Amino acid sequence: MVTRTVRTAxxxxxxxxxxxFAPQAVAAPVEPCAQEQQTPGPLPGHWSGxxxxxxxxxxxxxxxxxxxxxGGLTGTISIPVQGIADRPLVDPRWERVDGVAxxxxxxxxxxxxxxxxxxxxxxGTTIAGTFxxxxxxxxxxxxxxxxxxxxxxxxxxxxxxxxxxLRVPGMAVAVVFRGEVVxxxxxxxxxxxxxxxxxxxxxxxxxxxxxxxxxxxxxxxVAEGLLDWDEPVRTYxxxxxxxxxxxxxxxxxRDMCSHRSGLPRHDLVWxxxxxxxxxxxxxxxxxxxxxxxxxxxxxxxxxMYATAGLALERVSGDSWEDWTRAHILEPLGMTxxxxxxxxxxxxxNHALPHDRKRGKFVAIDMRDLxxxxxxxxxxxxxxxxxxxxxxxxxxxxxxxxxxxxxPQLANLIQPVTTFGGITPASEGPTAYALGWMVDSHxxxxxxxxxxxxxxxxxxxxxxxxxxxxxxxxxxRASALTNIAASQLAERFLGLPPVDRTDFAVSQLxxxxxxxxxxxxxxxxxxxxxxxxxxxxxxxAGRYRHxxxxxxxxxxxxxxxxxxxxxLGLRYGILDVPLEHWHYxxxxxxEVDGMELAEGLMVHxxxxxxxxxxxxxxxxxxxxxxxxxxxxxxxxxxxxEYLDTLVGRYALLGQMLTVxxxxxxxxxxxxxxxxPTYDLExxxxxxxxxxxxxxxxxxxxxxxxDAPAALVLFQPNGTFxxxxxxxxxxxxxxSE
Length: 735
What we know:
This protein is an alpha+beta fold.
């Protein structure tokens, strides 16, 4: 008997009723070879094929057991598109009729008396013929199913060859097929400098494939009644604020995890600021501009996943890491999987990310992704990811332990938002579900997601109807993960192989040329003989955006002897020199490890007094650049300096009094007959009078014979009040 598990099947299989067409011409019988006329040959095992209405193909899988010959077989059939799973075959027969090897079978419990009748090809590997049901006739064909040994033959050699061609130091691969881990291996080196090999237990950063763990954990919380996918997320995060008021009120976890919040990526908020907490990130969302309307379009956003993870933390009382570890990793036995940088570096078998510089592999920095964790901080291995894939292909159950029901699992891969167009070469649009993309590959349903972070690239692909799952990861940013996943899918699905390597190599070969071309195009737009409007020291200062945080412009030593100092830009982990471009525009130059910033243009903006008041920079692909306001001079916040300003200042026979503030303002100014004004620290040595537009104060230190003074700038003029020393006040009092 066939021992495959029988799953729930549809009650009806009416393949032709949904289509209006006449019976089609059937495939011509294949002439059997002399050997096949003598014996049908072995049939038991897996066969894969399709029933073919006009312009369509219904994929099917058949499994046989028992002896060849009349009445000696048992079997089952699965037709995923019809919801048929492991349905028993009726009287399957494989025999010789008039010297021709023939196959016949019906399908149990299906109306219309469905029946296969076909003959076997000369090489014994295929069967073709007719499928009839309810008086209609269609053609069918099937071929011997692929075994893991056959599919993997030569793959090790292929993988090692790809590492060389695509200039990648190391890779790990896992394949799950028909409920078994049929392959888990490492290739190349996890650490080039130390000459350490990668293996199936080596930890790699899996990037955004972490998202599927986050949505899985949320679905578990939904099952416990802690969360609801379609409840406004402010139910769980009442302090959430967004620029779009509609999104603020109606945003749900389903919106967040299917990337339809209206926000673009805004990735530098988290990438350049690794020390932020998730709570601090929540506050910054109120200042990040959307680029499309709420639920209007798919726009990938890692911040929404971090926020979804924070919602899980709020309702569970656990950190996202602790919930994921206790509810997913430990039940699965994913014992090597780690969160973030510190945990990973503490292990003795982890991969380092690499790039190529001057023709050699060099290790590059790994970023600490703790606070953005729910979007991409997991590090895992081929062996551990094989268990994750086994869980998914097993319908939420592994080794007798169920982590989610099948309907719950189905919810996570139910398409929510479509994106991408349909081209003549495509098989349809790609949809985004909850942490997964859904599309088809050569007619096979594919559920997948990629990941990329700091020199690591990952791909996870599931083919549920084919019981196939694939994991690939490299320790250099590379197309190899996708190429390897497609190569394995084609091997296991019996598809014609496609060479994708030559194109990827050509892209590598032309990458430097492309960068040079982009620099040349930018240079062509540069205005000649357009000097800066002021000394470079005038631009130095701290600039702030409430969402993106602080950018510091400072004087740094020049890389060459041409200039003693140049401007530098610091933004979180980014630290790059600036070159003057034209007028008030400076350009971020190339620095190893800071490629993300190369080419960014920084435009300084004046206030009405001619001082640098802000800078604008294209930190996101939004229509308008991000504007960062210049922050108060640090010295104007220094208590010791502020104490030196306290005193009385003589102006046109009046005494102005400067005192330390008792509230938020560090200083106050009292003018006789007027209310007391708070002095708010500003830029370029000036304080602003609170609630008095256009009124500012500068304090000048004593110099030579000139006493210290307070200079008051106001719309109708500039006034200088000299500081009165203690003995002068006594003289004025005696008079």
